[in-house]
UniProtKB/TrEMBL annotation:
It is a multi-pass membrane protein. SUPFAM superfamilies: ABC transporter transmembrane region, P-loop containing nucleoside triphosphate hydrolases. The chain crosses the membrane at residues 12-32, 52-79, 134-152, 158-179, 236-259, 279-297. It comes from Tepidimicrobium xylanilyticum. The lineage of its organism: Bacteria, Bacillati, Bacillota, Tissierellia, Tissierellales. Keywords: ATP-binding, Cell membrane, Membrane, Nucleotide-binding, Transmembrane, Transmembrane helix, Transport. This is ATP-binding cassette, subfamily B. Residues 16-299 form the ABC transmembrane type-1 domain.
Length: 578
């Protein structure tokens, strides 16, 4: 609750005024039957005449207008408070997800995070809105109508007790049965969103593997499961409402039966019975409202728990304890000291084991190794996309944990293996590297990444709109734009994680040449599958099974490292056979 106070505070006035205005409506609702009974008993039966009826009628119209004003105002403030609350909560939830480490992100699937950001927040918003409109109205109307019922005829009021067992069953069902069912329903919605998101993002792969039918089946399964879990949860709603209506009708019948008898023996007037029937229905309506509040409350509680789970996730990679938050990366020296790392902390096997090496400023270093040998994992420790479990990673002789994340990541530019571009123009995408970059700087970086040529061949040049993820580009073009984007950051350390795999060898060589001029002082780490991509490097690190099995120049490794020479000859053989 304490956590949510933050979201109530800015809208506190709406949170207070809304329910107060709803009370105006409640007072009117309680007044109306009384005024009606007076018209019947004194105006029609009592013979006070038309002027009394008109006076009472005018009073009823004024009451109805006040009720309307209260109702409209109450609804307005309820919407204002609940949407404001939800908007702020959603922004904070999104901010929390943005500050997640890669490790945190790995724990959730995207579909589930989308459901939490949208549907779960909407559930909480709806519940709040309902609470603000009904929380005072329902008990207010219940108490008001009960008082009136007891004042008018205490004996007849006992008939209202008929409702109690129905109400008890309804509340029990809602609390015990509905809550877990709503939680399950949200989980199924997660699954549906994940399936949809995965399918739509990768629709081209689906089509190229002719997996449409399989995907349809997968979607159908997720959709059917959602339908079934919804029906399962809604059974409670389905049962609750008619049960309450039945209770309402039985109680009204009991009141009319006992009240009618009292009219026959002359101990009650018709006007009072009419008012009484109204009060009974008000009592019952307010009880229905209470059960709706509990019902939607239990649904919203299931959603709130899921939102809370994200908000309470400990971000395991922050710069809160960094000792030198204001220093920046100046030279680009990198050192690994006895570094061990694994993704799943319970796993026995290390993904990287006892890594020890130094890369001096300005050096070009290649990293070679079989797939899964740990190349990407190794370089991701430098900009702290993950943290080492043992040992230290140092940049310019300072532990990476002692930099602010912003300064470290500004100094270390990484082109990830999975390149992603965003919807927008090419220029907008490149400006991710530097929002304030001049056109000249953008052109130069694109030139270095061998992208300027193909960009200018497009009709709209740098203003060409990219589809989502850069769909309207070839793999090699995308890779070159991603390199240009990182170059614009002017990093002191540039890491290319297999980022030229889709570029032909001649263009790749040109990119490497341009790095020598453009990034003269910067340290360059190049992960590659082709030895030709790193053959000229000052140093090559050879990985196998998460361990360094060789380090040196190409010539040294050819003499000393069997793994390296095997990779070399396998690639030469392929060339010869080709
Ligand atoms: N996000 C992750 N969560 C869990 N395990 C992972 C994750 N990323 C990689 N791994 C595992 O860590 C090991 C090393 O993977 P890594 O991506 O570093 O290898 P790599 O040498 O870069 O491979 P490739 O050449 O195929 O890109 C592999 O066994 C892989 O399954």
């Amino acid at each position: 609750m304490k956590r949510y106070w933050k979201y109530v505070r800015p809208y506190l006035s709406a949170f207070i005024i809304g329910p107060i205005l709803m009370i105006v409506e409640v007072i009117g609702e309680v007044m109306m039957p009384l005024l009606l009974s007076k018209i019947i008993d004194y105006g029609i039966s009592g013979g006070r005449g038309i002027s009394y009826i008109i006076a009472m009628g005018i009073l009823m119209v004024i009451t109805a207008l006040c009720m309307m004003a209260g109702g409209v105002g109450g609804a307005y403030f309820a919407i204002k408070a609940s949407t404001g609350f939800a908007n702020d909560l959603r922004k904070d939830l999104f901010k929390q997800i943005q500050s997640f480490s890669f490790n945190n992100i790995d724990q959730y699937n995207t579909g589930s995070l989308i459901t939490r950001l949208t549907n779960d927040i909407t559930q909480v918003q709806n519940m709040l809105q309902m609470m603000l409109r009904m929380a005072l109205r329902a008990p207010g109307m219940l108490i008001g109508a009960l008082i009136m019922a007891f004042v008018l005829n205490p004996k007849l009021a006992m008939a209202i007790l008929c409702i109690v067992p129905f109400l008890a069953i309804a509340i029990y069902l809602i609390l015990k049965v509905a809550f877990p069912r709503f939680t399950n329903m949200q989980k199924k919605l997660d699954a549906l969103n994940t399936t949809t998101q995965e399918n739509l993002t990768n629709i081209r792969v689906v089509k190229s593997f002719v997996r449409e039918q399989y995907e349809e089946k997968k979607f159908k399964k997720a959709s059917t499961e959602l339908k079934e879990s919804t029906i399962n949860a809604m059974k409670i709603v389905i049962f609750t409402m008619p049960a309450m209506t039945l209770a309402m009708n039985i109680t009204t019948l009991a009141v009319v039966w006992f009240g009618g008898n009292q009219i026959i023996i002359g101990s009650m007037t018709t006007g009072i019975l009419t008012a009484y029937v109204n009060y009974v229905s008000q009592i019952l309506i307010s009880l229905v409202m209470v059960s709706i509040i509990i019902l939607s409350g239990s649904r919203a509680l299931a959603s709130a728990k899921r939102i809370d789970e994200v908000l309470c996730t400990d971000i395991d990679l922050t710069d809160e304890n960094a000792l030198h938050k204001d220093i920046t990366v100046k030279y680009g020296k990198i050192e690994f000291r006895n570094v061990c790392f694994k993704y799943y902390k319970n796993n026995e096997r290390w993904v990287l084991e006892n890594m020890n090496f130094v890369i001096n400023p300005g050096e070009t270093v290649g990293i070679i190794g079989s797939t899964g040998s740990g190349k990407s994992s190794l370089v991701q420790l430098i900009p702290r996309l993950y943290d080492a479990d043992r040992g230290e990673v140092l940049v310019d002789d300072v532990n990476v944990k002692d930099y602010s994340l912003k300064n470290l990541r500004n100094g270390v530019g990484i082109v990830l293996q999975k390149n992603v571009l965003f919807s927008g123009t090419i220029k907008e995408n490149l400006k991710w590297g530097d929002q304030n970059a001049s056109d000249e700087a953008i052109y130069q970086c694109a030139e270095s990444a061998q992208a300027h040529g193909f960009i200018t061949s497009f009709q709209d040049g740098y203003d060409t709109e990219l589809g989502q993820g850069g769909v309207n580009l070839s793999g090699g073009q995308k890779q070159r734009l991603c390199i240009a984007r990182t170059l614009l950051k002017k990093p002191k350390v540039l890491i290319l994680d297999d980022s030229t795999s889709a570029v032909d060898t001649a263009t790749e060589a040109k990119i490497r040449e341009s790095f020598k001029i453009k990034l003269k002082g910067a340290t360059k780490i190049i992960i590659a599958q082709r030895i030709s991509s790193v053959i000229d490097a000052d140093k090559i690190i050879v990985l196998d099974g998460g361990k360094i099995v060789g380090m040196g120049t190409h010539a040294e490794l050819m003499r000393n490292c069997q793994t390296y020479s095997e990779i070399y000859y396998s690639q030469i053989d392929k060339k010869v056979t080709a």
